[in-house]
Design goal:
The chain is α/β, with parallel strands linked by helices and about 600 residues long. The protein is about 35% helix and about 20% strand. The chain binds fe (ii) ion.
Length: about 600
């Protein structure tokens, strides 16, 4: 038995996973336990959870794999420092960061006093870990592999070929050039300062026109080999120390763009300023530029390899709008995107890369049988595990949920809530579906928490997609988020081609497709301004209860989808039932379904 602990530590979205003989056992982001968004630092709570899930102690872990390699791209770093003479603060900052990361053993010893880790530590280069997080858990025997992000280990993108359990990296884009930094700089310029705010620009883009694409092409320059470079006049990160604070908290990033960007587009927007058509046009133009560079790279790689399968990861692979256009704009026919495409996912990539290295070195033998290889023709070279769902986090039994409810009885009574246990799943789903169809907002807390940023039907808030006012109701009762941001649908897998202009499988909500024109008026709450929807395809075999709920909703309404948004209110997605109850009690959510327990506010549908 070989246990490998995979870590993304000292980056935003710190995380841990546990892989047992090549099969994923557990995975979670540290933010869910610490209750601070994008928490960065050492993921001690996520590690604790992974070990508890497998019922093992730290001493039984044979290997720790981390998605960072202090030796990677060293000559590039030295060359850059000598030729560019950056601010001394930038150099010192990077050395300090590297030193902190080198102490995984010490951190483990501090965290798990009385237990000891005597195994091997594997440092896996940041982009190899991203590539591994997609390809090595994909259903593909071979594929073009691509990682695009802000930065990691002095590079911002890497690509190559995956074959069997091998990944051959062909090329990289090195610091200071980066599509992720380009998008993040424009996000900051548009007045969204927080780490991870890029999705807001993506949501805003369809409201504008790509009027400034010519200007954007001055900032990002495409090259014949498929890569790209930044015009550094518009940036600061290559010569100054950019504040990037992460120590035991939410990451904060300093301003990335230079004065030249304001000269090009006018003064930067303050976050309190109104969003004007000008800002929307810049958002649309930035998205268009990102897509141009992304498809330029993908098309070059297709030309080079002639393979029509693509495995994708890295923070930029969270750009679900661009992902949804891959079939239209490139010859690729099949895509696999890691559900935690950002740095959290590097934990899985690092663990899988380490597993195959260890397996080959010690000839441990084949991995377990494939879990799900429908339509893939099977995997060779001992790659048995396919990550076909994202439910790898903590779960709670009905008895535990009942005890939590009992402990909070007084608070529930104070809000005149009615609590009922409904052991018959069909009846539970029927009641919940009825509540949704009646316009209620319901919290849906089931099974194992999702891995990755999206709620996929286990820690979700659900609503009726048919109601044009549902978005306003959700924003009023719970979310209070920017009105331009869309809500997403979860749809039965079989119903996809009838409702969307695709028949692709999107289990992790990572691609946006057009809703069929004739269907849009039926589901206004999940139709974005440009007619698109960021769908999640729901499978009976990977989430039977959620499937059953949507099936029940479809029977009642004729619409095989529900509106699905993450179960949270300006906080990380809820992890434990206590947090779900807190969110329910402090917002105006109508119904909470915790496992088999249904809690209904008095006066609402029951
Ligand atoms: Fe990354």
């Amino acid at each position: 038995m070989t246990y490998i602990l995979g870590l993304n530590a000292y980056h935003g979205d710190s995380s841990a996973c546990l892989v047992k003989d090549g099969t994923l056992v557990a995975a979670a982001e540290e933010e869910r336990f610490r209750r601070i968004k994008h928490w960065a630092g050492f993921p001690s709570e996520a590690i604790r959870y992974c070990l508890a899930e497998a019922k093992i102690g730290l001493g039984e872990v044979g290997h720790v794999a981390i998605n960072q390699d202090s030796k990677a791209n060293l000559w590039r770093k030295i060359g850059f420092t000598l030729s560019s003479r950056p601010d001394l603060g930038l150099v010192i900052d990077r050395i300090k960061n590297k030193k902190e990361r080198a102490n995984v053993r010490e951190e483990l010893a501090r965290t798990f006093q009385g237990e000891s880790f005597a195994g091997e530590v594997h440092e896996v280069e940041h982009h190899l870990a991203h590539l591994g997080s997609a390809f090595l858990v994909s259903p593909f025997d071979d594929a073009v592999v691509v990682s695009v992000d802000g930065f990691g280990d002095f590079a911002s993108a890497a690509w190559g070929l995956g074959s069997g359990s091998e990944i051959r990296v062909e090329d990289k884009v090195y610091f200071p050039h980066s599509l992720g930094i380009f998008y993040q700089a424009l996000t900051q310029y548009l007045g969204f300062p927080h780490y991870g705010d890029e999705y807001k620009v993506m949501g805003l883009a369809p409201y504008g026109e790509p009027k400034y694409l010519a200007e954007m092409r001055r900032i990002v320059q495409l090259r014949d080999d498929g890569s790209y470079r930044l015009n550094l006049d518009y940036f600061r990160h290559h010569k100054e120390k950019i504040d990037y604070e992460w120590e035991n908290g939410e990451p904060r990033v300093g301003g990335l763009f230079s004065e030249a960007l304001s000269e090009l587009f006018g003064p930067a927007r303050d976050k309190r300023d109104e969003l004007t058509p000008h800002h929307k046009d810049i958002a649309r133009s930035a998205q268009a530029m990102y897509e141009e560079a992304f498809f330029h790279l993908l098309n070059t790689l297709y030309q080079r390899h002639g393979l029509d399968r693509l495995a994708l990861a890295g923070g930029c692979a969270m750009n679900s709008v661009a992902n949804g256009k891959i079939f239209r704009n490139t010859p690729f026919k099949r895509i696999y995107i890691q559900s935690a495409a950002g740095d959290a996912g590097g934990a899985i990539g690092a663990a899988c890369v380490a597993w195959h290295k260890v397996r080959k070195r010690s000839a441990i033998g084949p991995s377990p049988q494939p879990l799900s290889l429908a339509g893939t023709g099977g995997l060779s070279d001992n790659r048995g595990f396919v990550m076909d769902h994202a439910y790898w986090g903590p779960q709670f039994s009905n008895a535990e949920l009942g005890r939590v409810l009992q402990a909070r009885r007084a608070e529930l009574d104070a809000q005149t809530c009615v609590t009922e246990e409904i052991a018959d799943e069909a009846a539970l789903c029927q009641r919940a579906a009825q509540a949704i169809a009646d316009g209620q907002v319901i919290g849906w807390f089931q099974g194992r928490m999702e891995w990755g940023p999206r709620a996929l039907g286990n820690r979700s808030i659900l609503g009726d997609p048919r109601r044009a006012d549902m978005k306003d109701i959700l924003n009023l009762k719970i979310k209070r988020r920017e009105s331009f941001r869309p809500f997403a649908p979860s749809i039965l897998r079989e119903a996809v081609p009838e409702w969307f202009e695709t028949d692709d499988d999107v289990p992790f909500m990572m691609e946006v497709f057009q809703i069929r024109a004739e269907k849009r008026s039926q589901v206004p709450a999940v139709t974005h301004v440009d007619g698109s929807g960021r769908l999640q395809t729901v499978h009976r075999d990977t989430n039977p209860r959620y499937y059953r709920l949507i099936e029940s909703f479809a029977r009642q309404t004729g619409v095989p989808m529900v509106l699905n948004t993450s179960f949270n209110e300006n906080e990380p997605v809820v992890c434990r039932p206590e947090e779900a109850l807190d969110c329910f009690l402090r917002t105006r959510m109508d119904v909470l379904v915790l496992g088999d327990w249904m809690i209904v506010r008095d006066g609402t549908h029951g």
